[in-house]
């Protein structure tokens, strides 16, 4: 069975974006970006692949699922298919017609969609790109977390998850620390 990985950036106090959804404050860390290019290049949007030296097929994921708020900043910048090298799903109740034939809209229950994707044959993973509302809705299906943590305290913003209090244990499998203060930790569901 394929696994769903919540692969996301966060501040050290657990926020994935500013209150307005911006995430520029989590971007200036060169060492982590070099690691992303080497290990998870498919998670970079296609329009920056050439500038980042990304070429070749996906390594870890062949599918991305994201919420509307995660998708819309790219649309506003003219990128209606940010990851054409992956199967793209956008969970939304407000966008009623796909802006690209490469993007599948999910208007119903995202759990049903993710369970169907996980049941498919293959060993490539499914990337949950965000955001907090979708991560909360898919909480029971998340098999792994890959948290890119930056040495910034946000104090408020969009948290890693929205949802009810429901503690769930994950086991840390590896942590990489970078000279610029960033780190990446991979957790699996216990």
Automatic annotation (TrEMBL):
<dbReference type="Pfam" id="PF01872">
    <property type="entry name" value="RibD_C"/>
</dbReference>
<dbReference type="InterPro" id="IPR050765">
    <property type="entry name" value="Riboflavin_Biosynth_HTPR"/>
</dbReference>
<protein>
    <submittedName>
        <fullName>Dihydrofolate reductase family protein</fullName>
    </submittedName>
</protein>
<feature type="domain" description="Bacterial bifunctional deaminase-reductase C-terminal">
    <location>
        <begin position="3"/>
        <end position="153"/>
    </location>
</feature>
<dbReference type="InterPro" id="IPR024072">
    <property type="entry name" value="DHFR-like_dom_sf"/>
</dbReference>
<dbReference type="InterPro" id="IPR002734">
    <property type="entry name" value="RibDG_C"/>
</dbReference>
């Amino acid at each position: 069975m394929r696994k769903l990985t919540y692969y996301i950036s966060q501040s050290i106090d657990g926020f994935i974006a500013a209150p307005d959804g911006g995430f520029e404050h989590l971007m200036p860390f060169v060492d982590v970006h070099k690691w992303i290019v080497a290990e998870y290049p498919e998670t970079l949007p296609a329009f920056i692949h050439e500038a980042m030296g990304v070429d070749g097929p996906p390594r870890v994921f062949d599918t991305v699922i994201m919420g509307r708020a995660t998708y819309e900043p790219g649309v506003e910048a003219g990128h209606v298919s940010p990851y054409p090298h992956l199967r793209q799903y956008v969970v939304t109740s407000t966008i009623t017609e796909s802006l690209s034939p490469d993007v599948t809209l999910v208007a119903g229950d995202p759990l049903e969609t993710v369970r169907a994707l996980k049941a498919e044959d293959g060993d490539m993973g499914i990337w949950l790109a965000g955001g907090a509302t979708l991560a909360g809705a898919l909480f029971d299906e998340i098999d792994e977390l890959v948290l890119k943590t930056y040495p910034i305290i946000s104090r408020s913003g969009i948290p890693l998850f929205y949802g009810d209090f429901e503690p769930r244990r994950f086991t840390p499998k590896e942590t990489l620390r970078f000279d610029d203060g960033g780190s990446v930790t991979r957790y699996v569901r216990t």
